[in-house]
Amino acid sequence: MAIIGGSGYRWRGKSIRTVLRNNNTCVTMPRKESMIIAPCVVNEKKLYKIIITASRNSGNGALLVDFFGGKFYSGIPVPVNITKSEMHNYVVTVETPSFPRSLPVYLRVWRPRDAVGNIFIRSVRYDVCSKPISGKPKPQKPENIKDNTERARIESSRENKVDTSLYLQRRKDRIREKLQEKKNKRTKLQTIAKPKENKVMKFKPYKIKKPTNMATKVLVLKPEDVPKVSVITPTRDGSELLEKCYNALDKNTCYPNWEWIIGNSASTDVTVKQVKGWNDPRIKLVERGTTDGSFSSINNELVKYATGEFVLFLNDDTEPQPFWLYEMMSKIHNNKKIG
């Protein structure tokens, strides 16, 4: 399966780029520690044949190839030495590491720290070995790797045979716990707490038709079971704002027992005609006939027309959200310290 020369791969390094060489699209890797990463579908603890079609322009042509699935699931890097200046197939055998089934695995091709010169890669292909190879694969020693640190890391990864089954099991358990925590958090955010029931004030939980849409209705047994709320709104020449406020109130107020007292302070627009046109029995229009008075004094004046047990002051430029009044009254009812 070809993974380079098409799409789906990515690279790391400032000088890596796609170029056209001898009418072929290639990826150039001129710098040390440059890296190409491509997703692949492989099985763990299997031998795969890697075919790299590449050429060398200058330098030593050193490459390293391995499979990895993250920080804790890396295979043994296998060196590849690109020796020819023309496109040629270089074949190596690489073993995949042990990794969880849900973990994505990548094929990695990169240049070591002592790499010099420029390499052009036309394609990288991988395929499972048809014939089993006896024993574990023994990659050739990187002849052109002079860095002692890199050599020691490769040699230690080959020779140290540590039983990692317990570590891998703990790692899987931690991943499973994190996934469960995320699932529980997501479920908690989607769940709406049920209000406490009472003999006098009986709130029912929300009934949502579709999980993706915001519910707009909450049912209560009877309007008489909940206290009446008087919503007071003073206005003057605000017909457009009042229209938006009324639409939001009518759509998003699921609380069943409320009235709206609108105090008109000598408006010169179509406010009066607009309010009367709604023909809503829950609305009381109070004609003040004057513009005198401050905002607080007008509200205090309109309180005289309220018939509810609770009074709520609402500006005409607000647009209430779903469950707004239901939530407020539910909090007041369930917390005796409020009010």
UniProtKB/TrEMBL annotation:
Ranges of biased composition (kind: Basic and acidic residues): 140-158
Residue ranges annotated for the Glycosyltransferase 2-like domain, each copy included: 230-337
Coiled coil: none
Region (Disordered): 132-158
Signal sequence annotation: none
Pfam (any one): Glycos_transf_2
PANTHER family, A to Z: RHAMNOSYLTRANSFERASE WBBL (PTHR43179)
Protein name: Glycosyltransferase 2-like domain-containing protein
Organism of provenance: marine sediment metagenome
Lineage: unclassified sequences, metagenomes, ecological metagenomes
